Input
Amino acid sequence: MTQQSTADSFDQQQFEAQCLQGISAWVLEHLGGKVVGTLRLERWRPQWKVSYTVGDDTREVLVRGNRPNAGESDLRFEMEVMEVLEANGIKVPHIYGWMEAPKAFVMEWIDTEDRAPGMLHTAIANPSTMSDERWQAMLGYMEHLAKLHAVPVAEFTHIKQLANPPETASDIALRATERMYMAGVYTDNIDTTFDFLQHWLRRNVPRHRVKASFIAGDAGQFMSAGSEVLALLDFEIAGIGDTHWDLACFRGRHPYENMGDIPALYRRYEEITGEPVDLPVVAYHTVAFLQLAGIATKFFGDPKAIGGNWIEGLLEYASITRRAYEAIAELQSIELDYNLTLPEPAFKSLEESALKKLLADIQRLPVSSAFQEWERDLLHAIPEFLLNYTRYRDWFERETLNDINQLTGNSFTELASADKAISTLIVANDPADDEGLVRIMHQRSLRLSMIIAGTNPDAENPLFHILDPILN
Output
């Protein structure tokens, strides 16, 4: 049983029931237990906390399903990586096995308070905080991360995706971003924002970084109890690359999931490894990590994807791309302008009426185990955004055209033509163009964030969080 990729003739309620039936059958066959409870978790993917009984004992496991837009082998890849890590003494949840219906793998449930989901729409409503105990656990996590980086690359070569480790500085730096960039090209999800980022990454490879190590790919994710690290999580984009990629992840994830004092974490990593952290290289990999994460957000804009989080994709696209340009600006000492203001909204009566009708009707939709309240809220957020977009779209396009015309010396009146001129500059790959391109791309992303929020830049809103500097 697999989840369909389109909404055509798809019965979500029936699919959920089939998933639960398959989970119950698997638990009975492989764990000898009877399922007594399931809870689908608020995440990007189908994921269930499953309670079952064996005799008088009640036990729990996590069933981790596939993302709606993931490749067929992505989920099994993550499971195989975790099995290698466990065999090498890394604290990861124990893997119980693979199930086909639904496609998922089953792992140990870590019995502690759930960590922040690391999603922007939840961080806006409930900003992630850092307790003293969680901070001590963060510092302790750096030791686990160093141990993970020390696992020999040869341990992973039986996994197809990791069978041919990169050897040159360029391949170590670019393999993950080139793969994601080409996936974006293939699916028509590349715009001028990502074109510039990829050209910049190719041109600025840190040539002195020639050691390839196993990396988590999306580091900083773990479960803790008090100050104790219980388990490291989320290895779906693990790979072989530069350890400084993982250090960059802390900047990329913050503040959606609060990472605390990031430079202090780097100092702790230095103490543990005995090797200095090369901060400009971390800044380079900040751009790389955000490029990869930014392109990934575009896949959630597929209107026919079942389970895709469209609004989270939009929120993260705006925030991630802006902060990628802030990382370049810090490296190249480019001054950015945050002093932007929204104009008076331009109300369009037909759009206002239609979208407000959608908002009212969505709020009345019944919820169920297959369509939960948090999913209804995410659906409701789409016409909410569109209301703001219709009110400010003309301003957005006019200001973006002005920026491009000033940079290129042209007089474009239509955004598609202006973007073609930007593409020409990007392909020329002249470092002298960096400053102008970084500024206009940054402002474009910032304006989109302003439309989403319906406010001027607001330091209290995680959507506008400026990338934490590390070089000064």
User: Anything to note?
Assistant: The chain is about 50% helix and 10% strand. The domain at 12-108 is CATH 3.30.200 (Phosphorylase Kinase; domain 1). The two ends are 53 Å apart (CA to CA). The chain has two domains: 12-108, 120-464.
